[in-house]
Amino acid sequence: MPTAQIANRAVVLVAGPDAEPLLQNIVTPDLSALEAGEARPGALLTPQGKILFDFLISRAGAGSFRLDCRSDTAPDFLKRLMLYRLRAKAGISLEEQSLVHVSWQTDSPASQDDPTTVTDHRFPERVIRHYGEGARADTPGEAWHRLRVMHGIAESGSDYALGDAFPHDILFDQNGGVGLKKGCFVGQEVVSRMQHRGTARRRLVIVHGEAPLPASGTDLTADGRALGTLGTVCGSDGLAILRVDKASSARRAGMPILAGDVPVALAVPAYAAFTLDGGGEAETA
């Protein structure tokens, strides 16, 4: 069971009688579906529907929620949450020195009685996230990024810039990161419109190169035209957010798709219900 420490993470705690309704009304995931012992992706959006902060959310005890986010964005995230708190009976605090580890290739689920371990539901295989001193790393952090790439799991900073991506771009509509039926949250009107009109064109895909891929930030192109940009790169594999309608057209025309000068193949993450052979619209249930 490999275990890696994830660097540059912080935890924002929201606790109190009004913690759940406060968060339910402003962030993207549906907290009524969040069980003890599990973590789900989420975001706080701008009113225009773009991701302002991303995080993993889990229950940290009765009336308490843990928002696991990037440490460099955590102070601003805390301030933004405080603006929304108003008169809600909820305390919001930052644990700046949080230790976050992740384990995989395990048959043992996280315990619902131990809020310091949770199952990361972004992955089709069992991945356990550990908070605090209870875990010890035996695997380099690079292995964690390879796991994310293999399963098509994007994170801000590595794969997209905050303020520049919609939830659909990083497949939150596919992996439970946005509660499309839960009602209002900040940016909900834009997200709902994209969903119902099928206007999502940028999507996260897995990239397999015929040789080691160039650096993150390199354009993916077909016939000299940009399709998108590489995010996380691990050797000859990586992630990219690209225009799937343009990628589909290039594939149908038999045009090679390149990352820099490296020919690549594109794959849709196993959990996602869209294809690269149509117009790029999601085939959601």
What is the count of helical runs?
6
Question: Roughly what fraction of the amino acids lie in strands?
Answer: 25-35%
From the 3D structure, determine the CATH topology of the largest domain. Gyrase A, domain 2
CATH class group of the largest domain: Alpha Beta
The secondary-structure class comes to alpha+beta
Integer average pLDDT:
92
Radius of gyration: 19 Å
Largest sheet: 9 strands, mixed
Task: Walk me through what this model shows.
The chain is an alpha+beta fold. The chain has 2 domains: 3-192, Gyrase A, domain 2 (2-Layer Sandwich); 201-267, Elongation Factor Tu (Ef-tu), domain 3. It is built from 6 helices and 15 strands. It has helices at 19-24, 74-85, 141-151, 172-175, 188-197, 244-252, and strands at 3-5, 9-15, 38-45, 51-61, 64-70, 91-95, 100-104, 117-120, 127-131, 202-209, 219-222, 225-234, 237-243, 257-259, 262-267. The strands form 2 sheets. Strands 1-7-9-8-3-4-5-2-6 form a 9-stranded mixed beta sheet, sandwiched between helices. Strands 10-13-12-11-14-15 form a 6-stranded antiparallel barrel. β4 and β5 (64-70) form a beta hairpin. The longest helix has 12 residues, at 74-85. It starts with a strand and ends in an 18-residue tail after the last strand. Mean pLDDT is 92; it is low at 279-285.
Q: How is the secondary structure organized here?
A:
Elements (H helix, E strand, L loop, with lengths): L2 E3 L3 E7 L3 H6 L13 E8 L5 E11 L2 E7 L3 H12 L5 E5 L4 E5 L12 E4 L6 E5 L9 H11 L20 H4 L12 H10 L4 E8 L9 E4 L2 E10 L2 E7 H9 L4 E3 L2 E6 L18
Parallel strand pairs: 3-8
Antiparallel strand pairs: 1-7, 2-5, 2-6, 3-4, 4-5, 7-9, 8-9, 10-13, 10-15, 11-12, 11-14, 12-13, 14-15
